[in-house]
C-alpha cells in the first residue's frame, strides 16, 4: 500500500500539544496515539477532519484520575496516510481502532 507520512518536524512546537507520540504498526502502517495519565482508560475518538490535537485541552483535565488515549485515524494527524481513496472505508477505521484497543489491553 502506498502511503504518505507527514514528517515529524511538522508537529514540533504546536501550541498546547507537548505530548509524547506513541505508535503501533498495523499491516505495515504506522498508527499514532497519545497515551497520558493512569487509571481507568478514556478513549478519545476524533471526527473528521481533525486529529488528536482536538483533545489537547481535555487530556490534562482527565489525567489526574484517568488514562487518556487519543488515536489519530489512518489518514489523519501523525498516522500514516494511504494514498488510494478506496482504502478509506468505515470497516478499515473500525478494524484499526479495534486492534488498537486490543493491543493496549483497554
**Assembly status:** single chain
Q: Report the sheet-strand fraction.
A: 15-25%
- Record field, number of beta strands: 6
Q: How would you sum up the global shape? A: globular
SSE run: EEEEHEEH
Please give the share of residues in helix.
10-25%
Which strands sit side by side, in order, in the main sheet?
2-3-5-4
Please state the average pLDDT score: 96
Structural class: alpha+beta
Cα(first) to Cα(last) distance is: 28 Å
- Rg (C-alpha, Å): 14 Å
Tally of contiguous helical segments: 2
Task: Catalogue the unreliable spans.
Answer: none
The largest sheet is:
4 strands, mixed
Please describe the topology of this protein.
Blueprint: E1 3-4, E2 22-26, E3 29-37, E4 41-43, H1 59-62, E5 67-71, E6 81-82, H2 90-103
Parallel strand pairs: 4-5
Antiparallel strand pairs: 1-6, 2-3, 3-5
Give structural notes.
- The chain is of the alpha+beta class.
- Helices cover 17% and strands 25% of the residues.
- It is built from two helices and six strands.
- It has a four-stranded mixed beta sheet with strand order 2-3-5-4. Strands 1-6 form a two-stranded antiparallel ribbon.
- Strand 2 and strand 3 form a beta hairpin.
- The model has no long low-confidence stretch (mean pLDDT 96).
Salient structural properties:
single chain; 106 residues; alpha+beta; 4-stranded mixed β-sheet; two-stranded antiparallel sheet; 6 strands; 17% helix
Amino acid at each position: 500500500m502506498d502511503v504518505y507520512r507527514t514528517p515529524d518536524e511538522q508537529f514540533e512546537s504546536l501550541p498546547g500539544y507537548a505530548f509524547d507520540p506513541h505508535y503501533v504498526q498495523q499491516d505495515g502502517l504506522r498508527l499514532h496515539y497519545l497515551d497520558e495519565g493512569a487509571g481507568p482508560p478514556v478513549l478519545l475518538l476524533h471526527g473528521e477532519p481533525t486529529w488528536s490535537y482536538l483533545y489537547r485541552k481535555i487530556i490534562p483535565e482527565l489525567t489526574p484520575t484517568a488514562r487518556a488515549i487519543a488515536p489519530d485515524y489512518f489518514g489523519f494527524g501523525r498516522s500514516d496516510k494511504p494514498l488510494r481513496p478506496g482504502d478509506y472505508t468505515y470497516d478499515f477505521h473500525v478494524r484499526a481502532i479495534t486492534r488498537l484497543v486490543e493491543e493496549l489491553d483497554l
